[in-house]
Amino acid sequence: MNGAQDLGGMMGFGPVEPEPEDVRFHAPWEKRALAVTLAAGAMGEWNIDASRHARETLPPADYLSSSYYEIWIKGLEKLLLARGLVTAEELAAGRALAPGDPGQRVLKAADVPTVLARGTQYDRPAEAPARFAVGERVRTKVMHPTGHTRLPRYARGKVGIIARVNGVFVFPDTHAHGKGECPQWLYTVAFSGAELWGADGDATLTVSIDAWESYLEGAAA
Amino acid sequence: MHEHSHGHHHDDRDHDHEGSELSPMALRVRALESILVEKGYVDPAALDVLIDTYETKIGPRNGARVVAKAWVDEEYRALLRTDATAAIHSLGFTGRQGEHMVAVENTAEEHNLVVCTLCSCYPWPVLGLPPVWYKSAPYRSRAVIDPRGVLADFGITLPAATRIRVWDSTAETRYLVIPMRPAGTEGWDEEALARLVTRDSMIGTGLARTPEEGRA
Annotated catalytic, B23? Predict the structure, then answer.
């Protein structure tokens, strides 16, 4: 969706503010926000694409005026509400008003290192050959889906070159909406600065995105 | 400190002593945590382990070891090029947000910069949690259209002829920049070299420290 998360190429946000690498958090609540988000995710009630979609469907003004941990918490509340795991009344009261489902999968402290070290694999076996090869010219589709997508607006309808063939990966556009993994070949596609930004582009710039096969069509040389 | 419109937060917004004067967001997070713990959906001990892991165990020193090894071990560097996931796993850095790794090497001709314009994708096992600027609108909006301007914000000016290669992390592939090895480090061991490798140099918003900067 064309939400506020799709920031590439926007202007006016001001300078980037670097900070030392030993700064991990900016307030104690950020630590809790991180941990609660990861622990709740480990219940297995939603996947990474659904959580991204919950964040990007925040109203644009809210998204842009929230820090990233605020975005995480607002997205998490939406996910929990949508799945009936907490109620709006509970969020308003700040406490549980009914017991939880005792059958719910819960991340235990002892399992945290194993779960983090395992991660989640998103690659899948190939069931068909890749349509495109390294060096081939492709054009990204012009598309404006109302649901989740990982094709940023700045890279739609642009001609690029296949730089890597990454394998077959879970397709976020369906996975985010409970419509299955629908794995597709994933490519790294490189665009020149001029292709993306015209005469305003840096002549020395190349930008790549990772694009699923259905985002792409062949482009004649 | 004043508040920034792009969502930076400062410690003065969150007074966490004795439960008094909590910011609205701190209260909101505390409420959510309480609800999930009371319902049995979240183990409070697991929260403490998660925080400790990313506060003290997993951070950019991991990535610095990968880079230092790549600088001294040609065979390892070759493996990083062909299968970065395996190369990084061989040092014990695995898992969440680093399942599918790609290493990109800076040269005198080409400088690499990593961004996630759509959210905050970042290689956690090697770099830890993303810094706040990496997740912020100024960085995510400008990295793909004005990377030299972003580099200038970090005090970096590259030669005009150096090509800039920006990697927008739009899938589950995670990118690690291998910065150029600083001059004057011939014969250094991996441990000494790793101390020159900064987090920002592995994102592409910085360069590895020179031996002189490393002594400072």
Answer: no
